[in-house]
Design brief:
By secondary structure, the chain is α/β, with parallel strands linked by helices. The chain has 2 domains: 4-125, Rossmann fold; 129-234, Arc Repressor Mutant, subunit A (Orthogonal Bundle). 40% of the residues lie in helices and 25% in strands. It has helices spanning 12-24, 35-41, 61-71, 86-94, 107-125, 160-171, 179-186, 195-209; strands spanning 4-8, 28-32, 49-53, 55-56, 59-60, 76-81, 99-102, 134-137, 140-143, 148-151, 154-157, 176-178, 219-222, 226-229, 233-234. The strands form 4 sheets. A 5-stranded parallel β-sheet has the order 2-1-3-6-7, sandwiched between helices. The chain has a 5-stranded antiparallel β-sheet with strand order 11-10-9-8-15. Strand 8 and strand 9 form a beta hairpin. Helix 6 packs across helix 8. It starts with a strand and ends with a strand.
Length: 235
């Protein structure tokens, strides 16, 4: 059986059609028609992908994504929405979504995006030796395998995008990494990210690793280039 996917979609016909076709493609599918049902459906074996409708009868997929990722941190996230405006796309990207697809869409396009998301997640999980276990970056202890970080004794989940950006900077510690390279390595062209997207993620990562995010010493800006992570250490 292929990857496990949770579909959170309140339109019954859409949900059942997606479930049938994804099952035929070899995936193991669970269904939920509301945020409450999704919270129940998240129990059980680990999920590899969350397919979330943004508009739900008892909430929205943006808020739900954070809750579900806290319980299934390794799962990729694709938002499905009838809202095609740029603000929603930007919000989805800033929440760390792996992709964002506007309805109506062709099933073959969705299938390709699912495959790409799972491939990127698999690549992210294949860590070099120096990135395995827990590494210390600034004030945070980061576990890339668990998609989580600990600060002051409190563990918090990291999104795939946060892990991808932080891992890239850590793998090149002491060297500047351009915004363009960060975009190429952490996002797909279909997501239409911009350099501002990278900057927003750096702001979030600095809050995690810096003693004083307003005066960053761990992730430094390199004017006209991008960012440099000063050092990492084995924990």
């Amino acid at each position: 059986m292929g990857a496990r996917i949770l579909i959170v979609e309140d339109e019954r016909n859409v949900a059942e059609t997606l479930a049938e076709r994804l099952s035929a493609a070899g995936y193991e599918v669970r269904l939920a028609d509301s945020a409450a049902a999704a919270r129940r459906a998240i129990e059980g074996p680990a999920l590899q992908l969350l397919l979330l409708d943004v508009g739900l009868p008892d909430g929205n997929g943006f808020d739900l994504a954070g809750e579900l990722r806290a319980r299934q941190p390794a799962a990729a996230v694709i938002f499905l929405t009838a809202r095609g405006n740029p603000e929603d796309r930007v919000r989805g990207l800033e929440l760390g979504a792996d992709d964002y697809l506007t309805k109506p869409f062709h099933f073959r396009e969705l299938l390709l995006r699912i495959q790409n998301c799972l491939k990127r997640a698999q690549d992210l999980a294949q860590l070099p030796g120096e990135m395995r276990g827990t590494v210390r970056i600034g004030r945070a202890r980061v576990d890339f395998e668990r998609f989580a970080a600990e600060v002051n004794g409190v563990w918090q989940p990291l999104t795939h995008k946060e892990c991808a950006v932080l891992r890239l900077l850590a793998s090149r510690a002491g060297k500047a990494v351009s915004r363009d390279e960060i975009l190429d390595r952490a996002w797909s062209a279909d997501e239409f990210p911009t350099s501002r997207t990278v900057d927003n993620f750096i702001v979030r990562l600095r809050k995690l690793v810096e003693e004083n995010a307003a005066d960053p010493q761990v992730i430094r800006s390199i004017r006209g280039v991008g960012y440099l992570l000063t050092e990492i250490a084995r924990d």
